[in-house]
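User: quick one
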Amino acid sequence: MSEIAIRCEGLSKRYRIGQREARYKALRDTLTDVLAAPVRKARKVFAGNSSAQNFNGQESIWALRDVSFEVKRGEVVGLIGHNGAGKSTLLKILSRITKPTEGFAEIHGRVGSLLEVGTGFHPELTGRENVYLNGSILGMRKSEIERKFDEIVAFAEVEEFIDTPVKRYSTGMYARLAFAVAAHLEPEILVIDEVLAVGDAAFQKKCLGKMNDVASAGRTVLFVSHNMQAIQSLCRNTLLIKSGKVEAFGNSKSVVVRYLAGIAEMGSEVRWPEESAPGNQEIKLTALRVYTDNAAEGIYSSSEELNVEMKFTARSKHSGLCIGFDVVNSEGVVVARSYQTDLPPEQWPEIRLGENKWCCTIPRGLLNAGLYYVSPRIGVHNMYWIVNADPTIRFEVILDHGVSPFWNTLNAASRPGVIAPIFKWAS
Amino acid sequence: MKVIEREAASETGRLELPKVIPSLTIRPVSGWSPLGLKELWEYRELLYFLTWRDIKVRYKQTALGVAWAVIQPLFMMLVFSLFFGRLAKVPSDNIPYPVFVFCALLPWQLFAHALTESSNSLVSNERLITKVYFPRLVIPLSAVLAGLVDFAIAFLVLIAMMFFYGITPHLAVLTLPLFILLAVLTALGVGLWLSALNVQYRDVRYTLTFLTQFWLFATPVAYPSSLIPEKWRALYGLNPMAGVVEGFRWALLGRTEPPAPMLIVSSAVTLLVLVGGLYYFKRMEESFADIV
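Assistant: Done. Structure below.
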C-alpha cells in the first residue's frame, strides 16, 4: 500500500481568455447566487490580473504552471493564495472536473470534492429530497444516505422543516443543510474549497469541529481557506500558490507568515472599481483605508488613534447588515474583530442608500509593534457572509505608547503578547 | 446532548481503509478516448436521482400538474383531426383519423420532448458540471429518461381511445417496447450531438424549435407513409422517426403492413447517430467544465 495519497508532477493548466467567463448567464436562484458569489468574484479577479500570452491565435493564460507536490496518506494540507492564484483550478483538476494541459496527478484513494456546498440543490424540492439528490451528486450511495439521514438532519438543525421545499428556507437553514450533507461524505481523500464561509458563528464552529473529526479520522484532506487560524489549527503543512506556481510548501505557520508578508504590493489603502467591488447587489465595498491624523502612510505609532475608513454603496437598508473588519497580525492571528453593531443599537451609524463613508477608531495604546492586516467583512447577522475577504490592506505599528522607563526590555521593539495595553494597578 | 452527538459522529466518521485502494492518474487528454460505459454503470444511482429530480420538478409548480402530459397530445390530436382529417381529408389507412394521429403523436411527443430536454441539459446543469465530477453522459441520459413518464400517462389515454373505437391489438403489440426504445435512442443520439454543441454554441437552443417543427412534418404523423411511393419508402426510413411512427401504428392498430424495409433503414440510421453521438460527446466532455 502506497504511503502517498496525492502526487502532482508538473501540473499546468492553460485557459483561453474569456473561456472562464460565462457567456450566457443562466437563470439562477438567488439563494445559490449568494453561495456562488465568492467563486464568481474569484473568476473576475482572475481574468483581470494575470499575464496574457498567445495561444492558437487567441489570448491565453496559465492558471497553473508546473505545480509539483506530494501529500501523504492521512495528512491534512492547507492551500492558500490570493484570489486568482490558481487554487480553484488545482482543486478542479484534482477532483477531475477539468483536465490539466500538461503534467499529471496521481491519486490513491476515492476522492470526494466539495467545491461548493449545495451543488444541485433544487429550490422546489423538499429538504429530504434535496439531501438524497445532493448526497448522490456528491458520490454517496443511496444506502449510505439512508443510514446517515437522521444524523445529517440533526447536524443541520432543520428537523421540523425537512419536508418543506427548500425555497421556503432561510438562507442560514439552506446553508446548514447543504453543509451537513457535505460534512457526512466519507471518502479517503477530501478536497475542500472555501466552504466554511456559510452560516452563523456557532455553525461555523460546529463545521470546524467536524473538520477536526475528519482530520483525526485518518483521512487525507486538501483544504482551501481564507481563515489563517483555521489553516494553522487544522493543517500541519500548507501549500502556498502564487500566480499559478508553488511559492512555498511546508510547515503551516511559516507558510502563513510568508503569505502574509509577501503581500508586498499591499498598501494602507485600497479602492475598488464598481465592477469588481466585493459585495452583492445589495451592498458593495468601494474603498478601505487606514490612517492617523499625522503620520507617514502605512506606518503608525501606537500612541495615536488609528482610523479604519470603509466606503460602501448600499442599495437596500437590510436591518441585519453587520459591517466591519478583522485586524490580523503577521502570524495570521485575528487580533480583533469589530462591527458597527458592537455598539448599543441606538449608536449604530445609519446605512444610507447610495454612498456611505464610515470610520472606526482603534484606541491608542492597544496594538503591539508589528505588521497588521485588515480583512473587511460584511455579513447578514447569523445568516451568511457578503464580504469575507482575504487580508486586503496592510499597516505597520511602531510601539511607542509606553509611559514608563521600564516599558521596553533591552533591544526589543515589541513587548511579549499579542496586544500591548497598559493595565491599571493599585494597592 | 452535544456530547452524544459528537460521539455518534466520530463513530461513523472513523475511516476504514479498504483493502484495495483505487488509484488514478489524471493526465491531459488527446484525441478520442473510450466511452467509459463501465463507469457510467457505477454512477447508475446518480442517473436515477437526476431522472427522479427532473420528473418531480417538472410538475411541482404547475397548477394542472401531471394533466399536462395528456393535454398537449390531446389538443394536438384535436387540431390535427379537424384540419387534416376533416377539412383536408388526409387518408389514414382506414383507421379512424383521431386514433391514427394520436397513436403517432405519442412516440413523436416522447421523441420531441426528449430531444429538446437532452439538448438543453448540459447548459441547464452548468452548476453541476463545473463543481462535481461524474460521467457527463448521465445528464442527457436522465433528461431523456424523464420523458418516459409523460409518455406512460398519455398512453393510458390511447388505450381508452382504442377501446372507444373498438380497436383490439393483436400479437404485434409485443414488439411495442422495441419502437419505444428506438424513439428514445434516436432522441438520445441526436440529443448527444446537440447538447455537446450547445455548450459551445448557444445557437442550438434557438434552432431546436425550428428543428422539431420541421422534423414533425417530415414524419408521417398527420399523414400515412403510404402516401410515399413504394420504391421511396425505404429511403423515407432515413428519418428514424418515420420508422418509429409507422412501427407504432403497425404494432398497436394492426391494420397496416409491417414497415420492415423502412425499419431496417431507420434502425441503422439511429445506431449510426447514437454511436457517433456517444464518441463526439465523449471527445467534447473534457472541455465542458471549461467553456460551459
